[in-house]
């Protein structure tokens, strides 16, 4: 029987474990902190649970337009919200562990490292165990980047892993970093009623994302009372009593009650024995992998954030599944980044799939683009939705849909027809011809596709 050793129990690791069992392998998975990984315990699941409360409050805030009077005292009890967040995360971790065990995986709580190709050493509270494995999967994830001059204290200066200890809505939260994580938390705390300042080192928020979506969300943020500071690079963060001071590189200072650092992630690849085993890493410490999750050493695979390929739970899981299919001789479909759909859980949400506008411009692709504001959609009018759009990209000549962006409430759901079109290589006409419900937000997806129709 083929023996697989998996280091790390996030989606990269646990999805791989389930696939490997299904393909008949003996599986040992070692996890340091809790099955489900950062995804379930500190990152994705907790943040989206917090955002669910914030979204509810944001919706309630616009109830008057729909004729509902809501008392101005409606507020979230952050202690209860965070207790729910942590309960939900722990329950999900428990569910996943049960699934792994009932599938026949051996799950160990401890720390794993590669001693040599084909050999893993596991340190548990009970002692050390050496494991010979035919295949090793590294799925060790990443942790928040912090800086010497901005040391989190877990109370007032926080990483995204530490915010769930807050018992009261921060009076003034300064969020440093305007990438996806910074934007999501800035949006969430605004929705929860905190004063929020978002510090961005670039000229706009979400610098890596679709420019129309980023401009729209920045307008919404400022309209909702957030202060967005562009071209402002953090130099240091200090705490004095219950105040924090953020100093910018140009000497300006900001004062708030809390500071959340969203400065990106560092891969968990140090002290894993990778260099000695010959596993190639890049300058940032990310493991080099190919499209079937192979590292530079035969028999050693890697998946998820430790590879830095695309830091999403869905991509981590897919890389893990692909690795096991490759190792265990099943049909292998290499990772196709051009088909990945993703969502930014701001209010409104920003979802995207396929080729981006930036890639189109960089590659000089011949693509027709259409952008349709949601405000014209009848369902949006009924629901009091004013912000959002559907944007589609289709190849000139063939009309094949190669990408799209949806901004709006539940854009994470609305993107699915576009994702289907991208993965099945449907044309804009195919998308336009599929019936949508009247009235529905998805009517705007079909209408945008209709606008891409060209006479032959
Ligand atoms: C705030 C935030 C929100 C996010 N929201 C989303 C979202 O909505 N959707 C989405 O798709 N992605 C989201 N992401 C990204 C997503 O969380 C990551 O891409 C995902 O966690 C990667 O999964 P992974 O399996 O690679 O690593 P992880 O989930 O980090 O799991 C790795 C595990 O390995 C363990 N480990 C590390 N070293 C060892 C060792 N030596 N021995 C044993 N165990 C070890 C760690 O303890 C950890 O539990 C978010 C990220 C952040 C920061």
UniProtKB/TrEMBL annotation:
GO terms for molecular function: flavin adenine dinucleotide binding; NAD(P)H dehydrogenase (quinone) activity. PANTHER family: MERCURIC REDUCTASE, NAD(P)H DEHYDROGENASE (QUINONE). This is NAD(P)H-quinone dehydrogenase. Gene3D superfamilies: 3.30.390.30, FAD/NAD(P)-binding domain. Residues 3-320 form the FAD/NAD(P)-binding domain. It comes from Aeromicrobium phragmitis. It holds the Pfam family Pyr_redox_dim. It comes from the Bacteria. Belongs to the class-I pyridine nucleotide-disulfide oxidoreductase family.
